[in-house]
Write a structure and sequence with these properties.
The protein is mainly alpha-helical. The chain is built from 4 helices and 2 strands.
């Protein structure tokens, strides 16, 4: 499960109360997203993507939670593609 941080405790509490209907591993905090992106994208940029709606997220309290599958789709869809003619 990883390190037991305040964000992980929040997720666990939400899971326990039935607020989030998935496993802990299905949800990522902004810190988790930052780490998955190799710490190359500032956390403020990740928050900006969430606020603009580019990266879907949930905010059941004070913390944003991103579904792992939504991050994977965001990464796939953000891939730059070479021009067809080159």
């Amino acid at each position: 499960m990883g390190e037991l941080t305040a964000s992980r405790i929040l997720i666990m509490n939400l899971l326990f109360r039935g607020v989030v209907l998935a496993t802990d591993d299905d949800w990522l905090t902004i810190q988790d997203v930052y780490e998955r992106l190799g710490k190359k994208v500032p956390m403020d940029t990740i928050r900006s993507w969430i606020r603009s709606g580019k990266l879907p997220a949930y905010k059941p309290g004070r913390t944003y939670l991103v579904k792992r599958e939504d991050l994977e789709k965001f990464i796939r869809d953000s891939r730059t593609k070479p021009d067809e003619g080159t």
